[in-house]
Amino acid sequence: MTKFHGVTSLGLAAVATVIAAIAIFQTSWVFGIVYLVICAAAPGAILYAYCAKCPCKEHCAHVFPGKAAMAFDRKPGPYTTTEMAVLVLALLLLIGLPQFWLWRYTGWFIAFWALSGIALVQVRAVVCRTCDNVYCPLRTSS
To answer: Are 24 and 103 a contacting pair, CB within 8 Å?
Structure first.
């Protein structure tokens, strides 16, 4: 059941990202293309800076990021300030940047946050509970 939530949370986040791109493209093709470039680059940055150092990548509940992260062949260990900054910046660009355009389209804004919220609840309530990444800054003590 954990892998179900891991995969569906990624799917919901992907649909939310598509919604964000649609909202941006409705106003500006230039910013829409910039956002698509960010959407292409940010997951790679997250995979390298965060997922590739996770000791659980072989049995990651998100499945696909774990398999992709194994290609980087990085050793598990504590995250550096730079790696955490890359993670936060990538997430801020993916989630924060489109807010200006989403706000203009109430339906898209609500859909984006409903999907993102469900994905976040799935990750925190199910995926994180079974993850053994002792280096994760969001890890709760058991």
So the answer is: no
